[in-house]
């Protein structure tokens, strides 16, 4: 029986580890792997798909495993892990029978990325390492039988990403141009010279790029926004350069792409409108998707597929409950329920997430999501403006722990995809250029005024809250528009755009020109960037601030928080500061998440008047 909304949902349920999550089927379709905690750290568990013999096969004791995959031999699990959030990922391989784990990239201060794995090459991987130059990644062939690494593509210093063909060969490269644009290079074979195929200007670069080669290697699938607003899925013939459009929407970018294991043809794509919607390109899948829509409510995601493509693992995302996972059999067109990621959520009354749309002050259409306390008064509420990070990302519909947490505590939670967010086409994305702390913030201010005009928000009780860019937005709210908000919460947010850009991780070197285009160049626009940096307006802060930072954050360095804290301390401004010595850009360890959310909840309750889950320390 579900609890009433008056009951507080425990922070442990909202922000602790999932019970089970991220299931993947083995290539032969006989086994299932998923993430589940062992001593509060997420590890990979494996068992028979139709049995109950699941056991943990990995032994991570620190940060928990978040990304893993089945090796094509059905005998190994691969996963990546860093130390303390430093993002220097190592690639590990675990034998599921012996539990032996090998570090395949045992290099200090080197970041490993999986470039390509393919069922047709079961004992091989292509990986990227910035071993020779911390600024760029080269491609290595990894023999999983001998652990031997062989360099197969050397980065000359400007390659931002590599494209692998269906024969596991490096045949494409996307290079970064000084003006923020990109070039697509291709070659006939790995031994051939590169030739330039496409140039994307800075206007199109972030909404365009290669997806994969065709099976015969003579064509490329790409997303491309040239001559259009939103990125389209296209097929490009390499010999004639003839291009055909496979899927498009005038307002929304192509998001996810579903590729067949054997034909390498694209079978379906998603567009993330108010919700995720599928466009089916392969007619043979129409009946499968029709059946999947009947199985369970929610937005559908295909998580993994067996090599014979007869067994799929599917997740269903809803806004007011846990994620549900199903096994779907294509032959019988039947599916059966596996588990949910956090079954305890079903004991509580969760709030629906409502898509909202309104006009910014300059007429631009803004989209977002509103989550209100369920079963209580839904007018003149204390409001938390929850700003997404990136900023080149977006909020989406579905279960969001923070939205449910805030609604359960008595707040309206408003999440706005301000200009500069992705998914809404290049015009919307590019409208955010050089608008940090300006029109991007105006959109957030307009969202608050919209909520007040709708009778949703109490104008005297509005908080601004967010992480990364959202943390920056919280600091901007406290400094640029301090009369609109009564408090602010900043999680790993930059306070000084000059030092942010000058201290980006070395492996973001090929992204630096994009930073200059979209944010500003500290070498030529110092005063401009100062004018958009909360640090230099710290004397305007009138509201209390909670700041949380990971000491090992390679993206937004600890100094970004320390600078603004020092300025507030000097001016005797009310603040709380939490520094996590074993975290990076965000809080991976559940005990740290719980500690932060306990402090944030108490902080918001003090200044907005909402509810708070007492702990032994706070009681």
From TrEMBL:
Origin superkingdom: Bacteria
GO MF term set: serine-type endopeptidase activity
Family matches, as InterPro entries: 6-blade_b-propeller_TolB-like, AB_hydrolase_fold, Peptidase_S9_cat
Any coiled-coil regions, as ranges: none
GO biological process: proteolysis
UniProt keyword annotations, A-Z: Hydrolase
Gene3D superfamilies: alpha/beta hydrolase, TolB, C-terminal domain
One Pfam family from the record: Peptidase_S9
Domain Peptidase S9 prolyl oligopeptidase catalytic residues, every copy: 397-610
SUPFAM superfamilies xrefs: alpha/beta-Hydrolases (SSF53474), DPP6 N-terminal domain-like (SSF82171)
Protein's recorded name: Peptidase S9
Organism: Ktedonospora formicarum
């Amino acid at each position: 029986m579900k609890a009433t909304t008056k009951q507080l949902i425990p922070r442990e349920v909202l922000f602790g580890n999932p019970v089970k999550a991220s299931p993947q089927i083995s290539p032969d379709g006989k086994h299932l792997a998923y993430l589940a905690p062992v001593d509060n750290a997420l590890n990979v568990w494996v068992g028979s798909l139709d049995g109950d013999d699941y056991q943990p096969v990995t032994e991570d004791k620190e940060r928990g495993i978040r990304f893993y995959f089945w090796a094509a031999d059905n005998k190994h699990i691969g996963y990546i892990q860093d130390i303390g959030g430093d993002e220097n990922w190592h690639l590990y391989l675990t034998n599921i029978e012996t539990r032996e784990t090998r570090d395949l990239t045992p290099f200090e201060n080197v970041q490993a990325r999986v470039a390509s794995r393919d069922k047709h090459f079961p004992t091989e991987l292509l990986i990227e390492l910035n071993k020779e130059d911390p600024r760029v990644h080269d491609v290595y062939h990894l023999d999983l039988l001998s652990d031997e690494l062989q360099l197969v593509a050397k980065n000359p210093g400007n390659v931002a990403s590599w494209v692998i063909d269906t024969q596991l060969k490096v045949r494409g490269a996307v290079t970064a141009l000084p003006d923020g644009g990109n070039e697509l290079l291709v070659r006939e074979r790995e031994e051939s010279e590169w030739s330039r195929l496409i140039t994307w200007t800075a206007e199109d670069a972030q909404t365009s790029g290669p997806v994969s080669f065709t099976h015969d290697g003579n064509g490329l699938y790409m997303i491309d926004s040239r001559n259009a607003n939103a990125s389209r899925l296209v097929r490009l013939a390499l010999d004639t350069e003839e291009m055909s459009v496979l899927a498009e929407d005038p307002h929304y970018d192509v998001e996810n792409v579903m590729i067949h294991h054997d034909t390498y043809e694209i079978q379906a794509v998603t567009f993330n409108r108010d919700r995720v919607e599928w466009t089916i390109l392969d007619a043979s899948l129409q009946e499968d998707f029709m059946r999947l829509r009947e199985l369970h409510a929610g937005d559908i995601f295909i998580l993994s597929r067996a090599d014979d493509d007869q067994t799929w693992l599917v997740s269903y995302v809803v806004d007011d409950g846990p994620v549900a996972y199903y096994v779907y059999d294509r032959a019988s067109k039947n599916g059966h329920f596996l588990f949910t990621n956090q079954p305890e959520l079903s004991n509580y009354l969760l709030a629906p997430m409502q898509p909202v749309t309104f006009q910014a002050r300059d007429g631009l259409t803004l989209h977002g999501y509103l989550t209100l306390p369920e079963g209580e008064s839904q007018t003149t509420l204390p409001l938390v403006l929850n700003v997404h990070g990136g900023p080149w990302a977006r909020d989406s519909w579905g279960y969001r722990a923070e939205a449910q947490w805030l609604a359960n505590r008595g707040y309206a939670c408003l999440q706005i995809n301000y200009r500069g967010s992705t998914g809404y086409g290049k015009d919307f994305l590019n409208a955010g250029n050089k608008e940090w702390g300006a029109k991007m913030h105006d959109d957030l201010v307009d969202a608050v005024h919209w909520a007040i005009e709708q009778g949703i928000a109490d104008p005297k009780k509005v908080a601004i809250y967010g992480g990364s860019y959202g943390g920056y937005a919280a600091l901007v709210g406290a400094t640029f528009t301090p009369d609109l908000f009564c408090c602010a919460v900043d999680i790993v947010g930059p306070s000084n755009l000059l030092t942010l850009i000058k201290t980006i991780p070395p492996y973001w070197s090929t992204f630096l020109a994009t930073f200059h285009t979209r944010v500003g160049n500290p070498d030529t626009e110092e005063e401009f960037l100062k004018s958009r940096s909360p640090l230099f307006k710290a004397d305007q802060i009138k509201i209390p601030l909670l700041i949380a930072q990971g000491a090992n954050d390679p993206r937004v360095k600890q100094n970004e928080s320390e600078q603004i804290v020092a300025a507030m301390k000097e001016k005797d401004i009310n603040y709380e500061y939490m520094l996590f010595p074993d975290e990076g850009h965000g809080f991976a360890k559940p005990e740290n998440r719980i500690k932060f959310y306990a402090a944030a909840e108490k902080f918001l309750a003090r200044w907005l008047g909402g509810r708070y889950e007492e702990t032994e320390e706070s009681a």
